[in-house]
Specification:
single chain, mainly alpha, 2 strands, globular
């Protein structure tokens, strides 16, 4: 989960939001590095409905498990090159030589289990009749009040637990409730920008 992971790097105000470089209030994690600022302002929490976009974010969230999100964010262009821009059909055609290629690619995270999970997940995407984006978006909560501070942002919800169960039932790997909630945040199924954050108003 982005906010809790990053909130240690800045002093949080009473409202939870902190001034960014332009003086506008933002989620604390979003002002800690230029990489986070761009991701926070332009992407995180904004709706993503295309198959490729949702599959990319699911893959990156799975690779992030146990690592810093900043590491994944900075390697994102390399992940796109290595994984055919997250084209599920292309990835589903990977064989052992592709696994070997990816394990030798120092520009990405070289974790065999996560690489093999990405290939398995590509097969799972292609097998979904409703589409990955539809499966993820149908787990949107009926209500999701704006968090006031980082403490109000959960790591797991009833909906993310249900999404993780549905993904696993359809053959997906590395998709526990926490990863599923981070995915929901990343594609805008939930908007966890703090109440006073300038990105929330967009």
């Amino acid at each position: 989960m982005r906010p809790r992971e990053r909130s240690r790097q800045v002093t949080v105000s009473a409202s939870g939001a902190v001034p960014g470089p332009d003086g506008g209030l933002r989620c604390p994690w979003g002002v800690s590095t230029p990489d986070y600022l761009a991701y926070h302002d332009d992407e995180w929490g904004r709706p993503v409905r295309g198959e490729r976009g949702v599959f990319e974010r699911l893959t990156l969230e799975a690779f992030q498990s146990g690592l810093s999100w900043l590491t994944i964010l900075r390697k994102r262009p390399a992940f796109r090159r290595a994984f055919d821009d997250f084209d599920a059909a292309a990835i589903a055609a990977y064989d052992s030589s592709d696994v070997t290629r990816l394990l030798a690619d120092a520009s990405i995270v070289r974790n065999r289990a996560k690489i093999e999970a990405t290939i398995a997940n590509a097969h799972a995407v292609l097998a979904l009749e409703e589409g990955l984006h539809s499966l993820v978006w149908r787990h949107a909560p009926a209500r999701h009040p704006a968090p006031i501070s980082i403490a109000d942002v959960p790591a797991v919800t009833t909906e993310s637990t249900a999404l993780a169960k549905a993904l696993r039932a359809n053959g997906f790997r590395f998709v526990g409730p926490t990863t599923s909630y981070a995915l929901m945040q990343a594609v805008g199924v939930v908007n966890d920008h703090l109440l006073d954050c300038v990105a929330r108003a967009d």
